[in-house]
TrEMBL record:
Compartment annotation: Nucleus
Biased composition (Basic and acidic residues): 93-106
Native organism: Gallus gallus (Chicken)
Domain Homeobox stretches: 23-83
Lineage: Eukaryota, Metazoa, Chordata, Craniata, Vertebrata
Annotated protein name in UniProt: Homeodomain protein
Amino acid sequence: PPWRDARIGCAPHQGSILLDKDGKRKHTRPTFSGQQIFALEKTFEQTKYLAGPERARLAYSLGMTESQVKVWFQNRRTKWRKKHAAEMATAKKKQDSETERLKGASDNEDDDDDYNKPLDPNSDDEKIAQLLKKHKPGAGGLLPHPAEGEASA
């Protein structure tokens, strides 16, 4: 069939043959038109893999060879996987930093275990003084209880 003909080209320079210094045919990289790329991208959005007949029809409709379509899809899948892997790495990094931030907050809570425990009125005054020094003003009303015999206002 005509769409399987490898001589059908897509590049503007398809008629010109480049030769290397030894006179052998030189491989030229095809340049696809915007319309071809648009159609390839739209097809890629729908399916990441093309079966032989689908690839042949697409190649024929775009004026490309099957091998060009095949290689384009291979390259596009590679690009898609790299982008997906980068997005996953970014999401993991974000999650790890959030976990670390939360862990840091819980570490501070561990440091404040003594602070968060209810005060024992029978404990020594030194411990209460240390806890009061640790207290940050405005973080909640921790006030010392008046000693026995002192009048409260």
